[in-house]
Design goal:
The complex is a heterodimer of chains A (159) and B (214). Chain A has 159 residues and is mostly beta strands. Chain A is 14% helix and 48% strand. Classes of the chains: A mainly beta (159), B alpha+beta (214).
């Protein structure tokens, strides 16, 4: 466990270093990695998209999202307090300078409210993320069947 | 909400009293081991659920006695929940697979109890739960009846006011309740839920109480 954390920390350092390089080369300040949407059961009205935001530049905020896959697209955060999970709509997600912010299962996610059609594995979900400073960023998220432990390589359990 | 807090308080008090009694009597009952340590808590004696009448995922009436004859895992959630409910059901499906291998003699059922009966019809529940495992069951029904079962196992849920009446979210406890084959509450698993630990914890409970409960 400690080894894993240490490896993750090193990964962060490496990402941070490469981030500096990229910013210097004039690449976009905000980068989105490992986006995926959870495949939905039949009958489910809502879906969730997870991703990592790497900020190579100054502090920013994720302030919205749009997707043709759903009637509405919102930012949500699940938080467990006293054993009760409350999922709340949030207006903005702070992205600190140089930070890697992970939208992961059991935490923050982009919620697709009122799916136009079921999210089935193999499909892709188009998403536009809106940042306060960096502006709009198009994301193409594959739909992943996350039922098996090996099915979602980017899935991390909630703490 | 307050009722459930009181309920949890009673459970805690009960455990404390139980522990106290166990400590006082230990010199007389040296052979009596304490309940197994799990990620959550084990009730020294199973607690009756009381009365309720729900509807299962096939639309059939479901009474407390329908829990009898098998161990039941209960998770409270709703099908509009796109994040933590799928996460919990994926873990429970994994628990089911693990226990089929490690505790094959335990007869098990897994129930997803709706905290959103207004939108979760039996048909919708059936589609939703069987996606995670073909044998998963769903329970829904009148709000007061769901509340009766929730109170009996210490589950809480509530709709925050001021939300859209079509897309509202429901806050709910993330605990998993375990009923023994007599139909009473035997244990509560608290989050985070990780299949490996849930399976190990159940195996410990089953080893301790399985013979008496069968």
């Amino acid at each position: 466990m400690i080894a894993t954390n240490r490896r993750r920390a090193w990964l962060g350092v490496l990402l941070g270093l490469s981030a500096v390089g990229r910013a210097a080369a004039g690449e976009p300040a905000i980068q989105v990695l490992d986006a995926w949407a959870r495949a939905t059961p039949p009958g489910a009205e809502n879906g969730a998209v997870y991703l990592k935001i790497v900020n190579h530049g100054a502090a920013d905020r994720l302030i919205g999202a749009r997707s043709p896959a759903a009637h509405a697209t919102e930012l949500h955060a699940s938080a467990t307090r006293d054993g009760v999970v409350a999922m709340r709509r949030i207006d903005a997600l702070p992205i600190d300078a140089g930070a890697i912010v992970e939208l992961a299962p059991g935490g923050a996610h982009v919620m697709l409210v009122g799916l136009v059609s079921r999210l089935e594995a193999g499909r892709r979900v188009g998403l536009t993320l809106v940042f306060a400073n960096a502006g709009e960023l198009a994301v193409d998220a594959p739909v992943v069947d996350a039922r098996g432990p090996a099915a979602a390589p980017h899935e991390h359990r909630a703490p | 909400m307050r009722g459930s807090v009181v309920t949890l308080g009673l459970v805690a008090a009960g455990l404390a009293v139980g522990a106290g009694i166990a400590a006082n009597l230990s010199w007389r009952h040296a052979a009596t081991a304490p309940p197994p340590q799990i990620g959550g808590y084990v009730l020294p004696e199973p607690r009756s659920l009381g009365a309720f009448e729900l509807v299962d995922e096939t639309g059939t009436k479901f009474a407390p006695r329908d829990f009898e004859g098998r161990w039941s895992f209960l998770y409270f959630g709703y099908t509009y929940c796109p994040d933590v409910c799928p996460l919990a059901l994926v873990e429970l499906a994994d628990v089911k697979k693990r226990l089929a291998e490690h505790a094959p003699s335990a007869r098990l059922s897994f129930f997803f109890v709706s905290v959103d009966p207004r939108r979760d019809t039996p048909e919708r529940l059936h589609e939703y739960v069987t996606y995670f495992d073909p044998e998963f069951r769903g329970l829904t029904g009148e709000p007061a009846q769901i509340a009766a079962l929730a109170n009996a196992v210490g589950a809480v849920y509530f709709v925050e006011p001021g939300q859209d009446e079509k897309t509202y979210l429901v806050s709910h406890s993330s605990n998993i309740a375990l009923l023994e084959p007599g139909g009473g509450l035997r244990a509560v698993f608290t989050s985070p839920h990780v299949a490996e630990q849930l399976a190990d914890d159940f195996a410990a409970i089953f080893a301790r109480y399985g013979a008496a409960a069968r």
